[in-house]
Amino acid sequence: MPRRPQKTDEPKEDDFIVLFTALSMILLAFFIMLNSMATIDSARSRTVISSLVGTFGSMPGFEKQRTIIELDHERPGGQTQGEIERTLRQILNGELEELDIYTQDGRVVVSVGSALIFERGGTELSPKSFRTLDTLAGIIKSIGIPVRVEGHADPAPAKPPKSNWYYSTARAAAVHRYLVSGHQIPAGSVELAGYADFRADRHGNKVARVEIIFLPEARP
Question: Where is it located (predicted)?
Answer without folding.
Answer: Cell membrane
